[in-house]
Amino acid sequence: MATVTDLSRASRPVGSLFSRNLAEDPDRFRLSDDQVRFFEENGYLPGVRILDDDQVEALRAELAEWFDPDHPGRELWYEYHSNESADPDRVLFHALGAWRIKPGFHDILWNPAFAVPASQLLGGAVRFWHDQLFCKPAKHGGVVAWHQDYSYWTRTVPMAHLTCWIGLDDSTIDNGCVHYVPGSHRWPLLPITELAGDMDGIREALDDEQWAMFQEPVAVELKAGEATFHHPLMVHGSFANRTDRPRRATVINAFRDGVRSDSDATLLEGVPPIPKGRPMDGPFFPLLYDPAGS
């Protein structure tokens, strides 16, 4: 099998897919004051254009190779699940570490269409945490059960994190788009439930007031190339895909520069530990954007 270069060695773009974006004025990508206020009030912000049509197609082409478990670079994943669900009729492809394997998924991290809004919502310079792929095949795509992202990230402090979910297909109610519980970013940290498990599993973790709010989640339908940002405590999930088209997405998880390790253990599979109390930095957690320009 051909050897794949580990692109985590390059803390900068390595290709040309986003060269046009990088050459443009960063202010072009800034969110409006109304968008920032919406995020602060509701805990999420939908409909932000991150990719153009050519970039979507390029990322789809890179992604296609990875559905075969015996693909080049497979040793570089932090996690790889051809189906995270235990049910073969409810398939959820989920993988972490695409940025290490293909140039498009590597370079999207420095795309100012992502990094500039992320800096505004985080209130400072942006560092990379990790990426994810969530893919639901046509007709038998599985669910992503209700959860809060930071429930999985308590090995880092303080909680100054942000998630950007980017559609590589149009995402709709019918094919399993993301749903949010507005205002749930003000809730305390909830226990972890099985990610590809029962959509009703979260009920036991909620009190009566939270459960009442939970009855009216918001479905976020997006065009391919659009993104939704959300707070690390935002309760969110997505239902099954029963349509005749796939629903593919890539996710960038980031944090504000200065977040520290809260564990002496390995933070991501295959990544050298960062001692507890030390800032999260180095080649696996590169600086993506600093509004101060330093």
What would you note in describing this structure?
There is one protein chain. With 294 residues, this protein is α+β, with helices and mostly antiparallel strands. The protein has helices spanning 19-23, 33-42, 53-64, 103-107, 112-122, 208-214; strands at 44-49, 79-81, 93-96, 126-136, 144-147, 156-157, 161-167, 178-180, 218-220, 226-230, 236-238, 247-256, 260-261, 287-289. The longest helix has 12 residues, at 53-64. It is globular, with a radius of gyration of 18 Å. It starts with 18 loop residues before the first helix and ends in a 5-residue tail after the last strand. The mean pLDDT is 95. GO terms for molecular function: 2-oxoglutarate-dependent dioxygenase activity; iron ion binding. Its cofactor is Fe(2+).
Task: Record the SSE blueprint.
Layout: H1 19-23, H2 33-42, E1 44-49, H3 53-64, E2 79-81, E3 93-96, H4 103-107, H5 112-122, E4 126-136, E5 144-147, E6 156-157, E7 161-167, E8 178-180, H6 208-214, E9 218-220, E10 226-230, E11 236-238, E12 247-256, E13 260-261, E14 287-289
Antiparallel strand pairs: 1-10, 2-3, 3-4, 4-12, 4-14, 5-11, 6-13, 7-10, 7-12, 8-9, 8-11
